[in-house]
Amino acid sequence: MGTKENCRNELRTAIRHLSDRCLYSASKWAAEQLVGIEQDPAKFTPSHTRFQRESSSIRRRFRTNEMVTSTPTAGVSYVSTPPVPEEEGDHDGAAVDSDFYLMAKAYFDCREYRRAAHVLRDQTGKKAVFLRCIKGMFKTQFSPKTPVRKVAGEKRKEEETIELEGPLGKSDAVNRELVSLERELSTLRKNGSIDPFGLYLYGLVLKEKGSENLARAVLMESVNSYPWNWSAWSELQSLCTTIETLNNLNLNNHWMKDFFLASAYQELRMHNESLAKYENLQGTFSFSNYIQAQIAKAQYSLREFEQVEVIFEELLRNDPYRVEDMDMYSNVLYAKECFSALSYLAHRVFLTDKYRPESCCIIGNYYSLKGQHEKSVMYFRRALKLNKNYLSAWTLMGHEYVEMKNTPAAVDAYRRAVDINPCDYRAWYGLGQAYEMMGMPFYALHYFRKSVFLQPNDSRLWIAMAQCYETEQLHMLEAAIKCYKRAANCNDREAIALHQLAKLHNELGRLEEAAFYYKKDLERMEVEEREGPNMVEALLFLASYCKAQKRFEEAEVYCTRLLDYTGPEKETAKSLLRGIRIAQSGFPSMDVEHFPI
Q1: Predicted confidence (pLDDT) at residue 138 exceeds the cutoff of 60
Q2: What is the dihedral of CA 101, 102, 106, 109, to 10 degrees?
Q3: Are 539 and 562 in contact (CB under 8 A)?
Q4: Concatenated DSSP letters of 65-76
Q5: Between 121 and 225, where is the model more confident?
Q6: CB 286 within 8 A of CB 59
Q7: d(CA 493, CA 135)
Q8: CA–CA separation, 556 vs 582, rounded Å?
Q9: What are the angstrom distances between the C-alpha of 238 and each of 259, 297, 308, 593?
Q10: Distance (Å, rounded) from C-alpha 129 to C-alpha 100?
C-alpha cells in the first residue's frame, strides 16, 4: 500500500474517532486533509474531476522540481488504528464520494451548513444526497453534544464573566470545575486507565490552571498515542513559545508531526522554515486548502501581499463559503486599499455566516476603510462577544481607537491583545503608537523595540522607532539613522527611509552621505514614476552639492530638471545655473559648505 493510501486510511478512521468524541474542530481538520490528498486517477469518474483542480497554478508555484511526492519522514503510523466497520448501505457511492461525505459531515457538525452543501454538490451517494438536502431544513442552529462537566464549568465561568466584567470585558472569573477535573484525570493517568483523548482533556485542564510544563508532557503523551487529533497538537503548540521548548519535545516520527512543526515554525516567526515544511507536505496533500491558507499566512508575514491575494482568490473559488482565515485576506485588501474587493468580501461573509468573529472583523475592516470608525469598533466588539480571545479583533479595535484619538481605550485594547498572545507584534506596535500620541516617547520606544524584536523584517516598525528617536525629548539622531538603515534594507514600501537618511545626514553636515541617499531616493522615485516635494528636495540638494564639488555638468542636469517646476525651486535653479556658468568661465565663486533644504 502506498504512503498516500496509508494517510487516507488513517485519516478516515481518525475522523470517526474524533467525531464520536465531539471533537468536531479536529474532525473537520482531518477531513480537509483527507480530501487534500491526491486521488488515484484510476478511481476518478467524470463527476469527481471538479474537485481535483489539477490545473492549479498556485500549487505548482510553491512546489520545487526536487519535491518528494511521498509523505515526509516515515509516513507510516506508529499507532495501530483499530478497524472501523462500514455502516450498512455505505457502498452506494464511489470511494471518493465517501471522502467528501466525511468532510461535509464534519462541516455540518461545526454548523457550517453552506460549506457542507457545497462540498456535496456533485456527490450522488444516498447519504450524501440526504445530508445535502437536510441542510435546508435547519433554520436555527442547534448545539452539538459536548462533555457535560466541561460545559458546566465553562458555562458558569461565562456567567461570572458577564457578572464581573469590567472595562473592555476584563474579568477574573475562573472555571470552578477544574480542581475536581484535574483530580479525577490525574488519578486515571496514574492508574494507566486513561486514553489519548482523556490525556488531551487533562492537558487542557493543566494549561488553564497554569501548569504549563506538566500540560506539555501530558499533551505530548496524547499526540504520541493518537497523532491524528489536531486539537491536541494545537494546544501543545500554544505551549511552545520558544524554539528551545519546541526542540526539547520528544515526539514520535509521524507525518502529523510535520503539520505541527510547520504551524509551530510559523508562530515562532520562522516563516521560511514553515514554508519549506508546507511545500513538502504538498507532495502528499496536493489539494489541501488548509495548506494553501497556511502558505498564504507565511507569505503575509513576509509582506508578499500580491502573492497572498492570489492564493486567497483561488481559495474562495475552490471553497466559496469559506470564512476561516478570510479576515487575513481582508487585512491585505485593506492595506492595498482595494475598496470594491473588500466590500464584496464583507458582503459575501455576511451572507455566509454573519455570526462568526472572522466575519465581524472583515466587516469592521470594511467600515474602517470607509472612515466610519465608530461602526468599525461596533463590529470588532461584536467579534469579541462571539470570542473574547479573538486576537485580531482586539488589535484592530485598538487601531480604530487610535484613529479616533481615544488613546486610553486603544491602550486597553492593545494590552488585552498582548495578554492573549505576547508574540503579537502588531499590538506592541500599537502600544508604541498610542504612547507616542500621548507625548511619552520613552514608553513608546520600549514598545517599538518589542515589536521589532518580534518582526525584524517589517520596515514600518523600524521607521516608527526611528521617528521616536528623532523627537525633541530624545533627539538621538545616530540611533535614528541606524533604524532607517534597517528599514531601507527591509524593502521599505512607503519609501520613507531613504529620504529621512538623506535629511539626517545633511542635518549632521555629512554631505557626501546625504548626496548618496538623495541620489538613491531620486532613482527610486524615477523608477516608480513618483513626483512631489521629495523629488524637488533631492534635485535641489544634488544640484547644489554637485556645483560645490565642481561637477558642473551633473549639477546642470539637476537644475534643468528643476526648471520644469513652477514654484520657488525654479528661481533657485536659475540662480544655480548662473553660478555654474560664472564658475565655468573662470570667475571666483563661493562654494557652499552646507545646504539647508
Answers
A1: no
A2: 70
A3: yes
A4: TT--SS-TTT-S
A5: 225
A6: yes
A7: 47
A8: 13
A9: 14, 17, 25, 59
A10: 12
Is residue 40 very low, low, confident or very high in pLDDT (cuts 50, 70, 90)? low
Nearest to 251 by CA among 42, 18, 480, 79: 79
Q: What is the DSSP letter of 248?
A: T
- Ramachandran angles phi, psi of 419, nearest 5°: -65, -40
Residues 452, 470: Cα–Cα separation, whole Å: 17
Residue 125 to residues 90, 121, 261, 521, 564, Cα–Cα distance (Å)? 8, 11, 37, 64, 73
Q: How far apart are the first and last CA of the chain?
A: 74
Extended beta strands in 15-98, E state: none
Give dist(CA 482, CA 102) in Å, integer.
55
DSSP 284-315: T-TT-HHHHHHHHHHHHHTT-HHHHHHHHHHH
Asked if residue 45 has pLDDT above 50, the reply is no
Q: How high is the pLDDT of residue 205?
A: 87
Q: What is the pLDDT of residue 149?
A: 47
Q: What pLDDT score does 75 carry?
A: 40
b/e for 54-67, b at 16 or more Cβ within 10 A? eeeebbeebeeeee
CB 353 within 8 A of CB 363: no
pTM: 0.72
In whole angstroms, what is the distance from residue 429 CA to residue 514 CA? 29
pLDDT digits (tens, 9 = 90+) for 342-360: 999 999 999 988 999 999 9
Spell out the alpha helix ranges (H) of 81-211: 95-109, 113-119, 126-134, 148-164, 178-191, 196-209
The two most distant CA atoms of the chain are separated, in Å, by 106
Grade residue 399 by pLDDT with cuts at 50, 70 and 90: very high
Q: How far apart are CA 146 and CA 149, in angstroms?
A: 9
Spatial separation of the C-alpha atoms in residues 597 and 538, rounded to whole Å: 9
User: Would you give the DSSP letter of residue 124?
Assistant: -
CA dist., res. 196 & res. 236, Å (int): 14
51 closest CA partner among 17, 1, 112, 99? 99
316, 346 in Cβ contact below 8 A?
no
542 is written with which cell numbers? Answer: 544634488
Cell representation of residue 405: 484619538
Number of alpha helices (DSSP H) and beta strands (DSSP E) in the chain: 31, 0
Q: What is the mean pLDDT of the chain?
A: 81
Q: How many CB atoms lie within 10 A of CB 155?
A: 12
Spell out the residues 6+ positions from residue 417 whose beta carbon is closer than 8 angstroms to its own.
Answer: 391, 394, 395, 398, 424, 426, 427, 430
Q: What is the pLDDT of residue 594?
A: 46
Q: Which three cell numbers, joined as nine digits, stand for 505?
A: 545626514
Averaged pLDDT, 126-155: 50
The answer to whether the CB of 47 falls within 8 A of the CB of 124 is: yes
Give me 344's grid cell.
464584496
Q: Which of 16, 207, 3 is closest to 106 using CA atoms? A: 16
Q: What is the pLDDT of residue 235?
A: 93
The residue behind cell 472595562 is: 167
Radius of gyration of the chain (CA): 29
Amino acid at 48: H
Q: How many CB atoms sit inside 10 A of residue 178's CB? A: 17
Residue type, 477: L
